[in-house]
């Protein structure tokens, strides 16, 4: 038995825990991942399959139905279809809405399936790539999708990593390898990764099979540059070795300059860091779709009002005639309450009846018409031979058709740089040595013209010694590794910097061949003679130093410091009385005006004693425990001084063909371009100049801040500087880096940053992450309320491509990740020109007309049911045969919308491409908006009124035939139906600008088809038990003289106002597009028309500005225009970090050609010390592959 105290404690515990769930808690998410090496994994991990499609077999139906019923039209017709199933409510049967709705959903489903299959096929291309995996002691080539966590993978040079890997060993010394991460961060410079020493020896399959330890690391996350883990190679070893980002090879990166690597898969598929930074494919809708949705909502309200009015009118009419009009049968209902067939319907039943009667005011065929038209437009885009790139055998691909019209309404473009604007190829174009310029001079020359330089070198020109030193520096001052092929003397240069690669290739072509690197010296072959230079020190490049130096000892014992870097830092360190200082600076400006990346070359001879003293200082700095980096920079400053200027190089960061011209055209179309890149600031600015986004006379607002408060102060100061011009476009460029952007995108600064950014003509964001790219797109899209377009080629661009209203993927050198996640894919940036300015404008104009015409033709016919209700006692009787109502949209008026949507065009392709001003009407939604929609709606009501009351008036005496017979309500309905069909078909012809053969066929077929149909349909009964009410109708209609008289009279009366309005407008108030169209018809060059329009716009802006200046007190009287005053404000303020950078940059108006990884796994100075090209690389053994 329990004691009293124990019982009391038990009672207390019961009281304390009363009402608390004491069941075991669910297991917490693991804080780390454990991966066993060469063993079965204890946990089932995500597979390596990539799926960027919108649908799967399981999710297709719910997602598809959700997407379809986001459209109010489909929701409305579903509602009508359900109402029609109520007995005694529907006046036109139970299936007249269900069948068309099912047909529409089926067509839409087929289209969505076809488009999503394209995405899945593109995913399959990636999933089916092959890679070597060590299984069962042999190397097996398996598909990427079969790679699993824990697999040991071998990746060869130029191959993508199939998953996130931990580097074990490589063909290079000390398990080093080079990778290119352009897909991840946009940088073209190579990065170094290095395996830990405990795994560096694992180069053979026997050694790899013997490891049996484990890796413990972070759970999958989206942080690209963060990784923490430990590796234990042998299970019986007690110590684990730490691993970090320096040992991780991320999916999406490419192996460069290394024969092969071995790695262990740690994150696969959608758990890889690359894909965790991507979002699921969004369901995008166009502006036209959203506008149509809102108009349908208004029409639905009008329909409800009409139904309510009709129900009230029916109630009033029934009460007035209940007792007086015996022939209706209401009196029988009064005498016998059980005779429900004769009693009038209740108010609620009448209301439902009229909703069904008027439901066709909203065209049920519109969704399927739009789907098919958009599908056809997408096919035209994909089949456009002008957007086919022969070099890569790549055509344009419309991966979705729902956004064709959005291409014609874009206001902001967000573009990646690397691989989108540029080709990732550096070309040595020009140089200046001792004040003389050498090389190419023209856009067509893609190779360095060396004849003049070699002639001066070999003929002992007065500058020959300068040329020799310049070429020697190009061949020696670098961190490149030469790699000789075993069976030939061909040398392949492995450069971590693409700029250094271009320089060393140029030196090789000029006869200064770099061919040997060892830990202690390099050798170059100069015109057949081998020269050796001992490497004493390498002073690495950093973005702060903006230069790199090599201290060498020549064969005669002379110590030289060879330095290359930005002109701003080299010129500060030149000695006195430099002979060619001014000429070189002039040439640098010339190179910069061509958009070339420049480097200055300078050297100095160092006395032996000075070098020894400095070497001791440098050694102390390199071994310092605190502030080592700062002390190394201070030591470098001591020796990098009193330079002798030799010359400068000019490298082209080769743009894709047509990029400057395309950007110029887009900006003329009033489209703003923002370049968002992960690359360095100087590189991005260089490209900005070369692609003409930035101009030499454009002031730059450069913002590089390191704190929240500094960023806020700088943004507020600059927004205040713009004053009244804030929010307007100014000829100013904004440059901002990713660190500052982190602060600028915070809630309290977003508005200031956005106000500043939209006030600038060009914006360049550098060092931005994939997530920042997406945030910038969302910021503009949500706050500026404009159509945005994002274009990129790498996996780091997927976020912004999906965030933008329209996403364009470049099928480029960086793989297909961006193209697979995009709405449209093209091979080159220049194809954006035609995609937007031609296909985008055409699609918008055509779809606008299709939507307006579809509502017009439906309202014109079905509003007659309301007019008919006025004369039939609001009984709910239909005027037309129920199946004639159903097939009006599906047959007789189906072809004109397709002719408009696929074949209509007002201006030739050549003019649309030449004159970007023609893009503005579609960009400003001039062809489809609420005003235009309701003008078309009122026109439809007007035509309907004329047709119906003309017919009623003609048959007013109830005598339609010479023998005095009556026609009946269906006779009148068939007459009105015929006139409506002719009027709306001719109206389609008036709407179209190009009368091609598909247009003629669609119009005349629609009319002829109706006459054939009524003849056959009215003769079916009694042979076929259907359409009994239509028996003999064709004979009656066609034998009536009134019918033929009205057949010619009504279309003329109905359409004369439309013709007169069109003639009046095109005579006195022509649009720019109409003027160009008329010029083309007359075979006149439209250039003068466009120039006149541009001048007119400029005068209007000038007048508005002048008025504004006068209104604020005549500030223009100071003699400065708005731009001058803005520049004065920008460059005459209290110094700040952003202003200092701006002023520094404006001194030279160009950047420097150098891009190299900083603070990597191994410093470049250490990397070159471990290579010895005179020996066979250790570990470079051939591994058998089981294919």
Strand order of the largest sheet: 14-33-32-31-15-27-30-29-28
Question: What share of the residues lie within helices?
Answer: 40-55%
| Whole-angstrom Rg | 38 Å
Report how far the terminal alpha carbons are from each other: 76 Å
Sheet with most strands:
9 strands, mixed
Q: Helical region count?
A: 42
How many strand segments? 33
Q: What is the structural class?
A: alpha+beta
**Proportion in β-strands:** 15-25%
What's the mean pLDDT score?
83
Tell me, briefly, the overall form.
elongated
pLDDT under 50 segments (min length 5)? 1-28, 1104-1150, 1177-1187
Features:
nine-stranded mixed β-sheet, 42 helices, disordered N terminus, alpha+beta, disordered C terminus
Structure description:
With about 1200 residues, the protein is an alpha+beta fold. Helices cover about 45% and strands about 15% of the residues. The strands form six sheets. A nine-stranded mixed beta sheet has the order 14-33-32-31-15-27-30-29-28, with helices on both faces. A nine-stranded antiparallel beta sheet has the order 17-16-26-25-24-23-22-21-20, sandwiched between helices. α4 packs parallel to α11 (about 365-380), α33 runs antiparallel to α34 (about 970-990) and α34 runs parallel beside α37.
